[in-house]
Design brief:
single chain; 3 helices
């Protein structure tokens, strides 16, 4: 457990930018265009309330639910990995083997039945010439 904790970057917690679309800083959510400005004190207090409320609510929610949700997602991805490793990949391999045999069977049938017909038609039609009038 200690080694795992040492691997975590406690400063940059989204190094792969998985949640870049969730921009929740005050400036990313609220903005007053030119010509529509509230008084400076209202804007400052609003920013403080937004940041404080967001931090408090996020801390409370992650404290109450974060560990359980992380456990759920860990189990979910373990189940997906299990299903892919033990069920899907072997099934796809079996499917590929059977389809390979089917491909050879139908290829042989087509070669035996259609190839002579196409060859004969080609020979019959090969002497046709088109002259420009």
């Amino acid at each position: 457990m200690d080694d795992f904790g040492k691997e975590l970057d406690m400063e940059r917690r989204d190094p792969n930018d998985l949640n870049k679309h969730v921009q929740t800083a005050f400036e990313d959510v609220l903005g007053e265009p030119d010509g529509s400005h509230s008084p400076d004190c209202v804007w400052r207090v609003s920013a403080m309330c937004f940041k404080g409320g967001k931090a408090c609510c996020y801390t409370l929610l992650t404290g109450l639910c974060g560990i359980f949700i992380a456990l759920w997602w860990g189990c979910e991805f373990a189940c997906i990995s299990f299903e892919q490793i033990w069920c899907t990949t072997p099934s796809l391999r079996v499917f590929g083997i059977y389809l390979g045999c089917l491909q050879k069977f139908f290829g042989t049938c087509v070669s035996c039945s259609l190839a002579p017909i196409c060859e004969t038609a080609g020979l019959c039609l090969s002497n046709i010439t088109v002259k420009k009038a």
